[in-house]
Amino acid sequence: MKIVVGITGGSCAIYAVGLLKVLQTLEIETHLVVSTMGEYVVKHECGMGLEELKELASVHHDNKNLAASISSGSFKTDGMIIIPCSMRTLAAVAHGISDNLLTRAADVTIKEGRKLVIVPRETPLSVIHLENMMKLAKLGVRILPAAPGFYHHPETIEDIVSIMVGRTLDQMEIEHGLFKRWGE
User: Fold this and answer.
1) What is the pLDDT of residue 182?
2) Which residues are annotated as a binding site?
3) Is pLDDT at 176 greater than 90 in this prediction?
4) 20 to 30 A Cα–Cα from 16, which one of 42, 103, 105, 139?
């Protein structure tokens, strides 16, 4: 399996770090692309620099490199996850604005009919945000707000991260044991 992981400047970078760690443990090939603000938020919220983040991925692509493999539909992947996804990136994807590698990779994922999961992080949501999400949902993009459930009775931040990472993996049909499912 081969997954593109995009990290943008929305808060909740801890979910991206958790996702990359789990995908690495599952030995799933990851192609990481990080926006400038994504790099900033990972540093601010998680205390990790880009070099440390890159160690969690199979391949890192510079967001300015529009000639990278993930910018082409002929480069086969199983899909893409943007976690967290800023409203700027969500709007660019919704309107086909491929002005950097991250948004181009998302555009390619949509045009090739592959799975795209977006984990938006913003509150409150404006009508503009909701309309952009609706536009993407109508195209089959999975919108998974960074809003964990609490029926699992999480006790730590790591428990909450596991719930969100697990729900994200569910959308990609990747098996995991990160949380107890309802009714188990």
Assistant:
1) 84
2) 9-11, 35, 86-89, 121, 151, 167
3) yes
4) 139
Amino acid of residue 184: E
Quote the CA–CA distance of 51 and 39 in Å, as a whole number.
10
Residues in Cβ contact with 152 at an 8 Å cutoff, skipping those fewer than 6 apart? 159, 163, 179, 180
Which CATH number does the domain 2-171 belong to among 3.40.50.10490, 3.40.50.1950, 3.40.50.1820, 2.40.128.90?
A: 3.40.50.1950
Burial of residue 151 (number of CB atoms within 10 Å: 0-12, 13-18, 19+): exposed
Plot region of 118 (φ>0 → left; ψ -120 to 50 → alpha; else → beta): beta
Which pLDDT score is estimated for 102?
A: 98
Known binding-site positions for dimethylallyl phosphate: 151, 167
The predicted-structure confidence for 26-58, as pLDDT tens digits, reads as follows: 999 999 999 999 999 999 999 999 999 999 999
Give the amino acid at 18: G
Q: Residue ranges of the domains in the chain?
A: 2-171
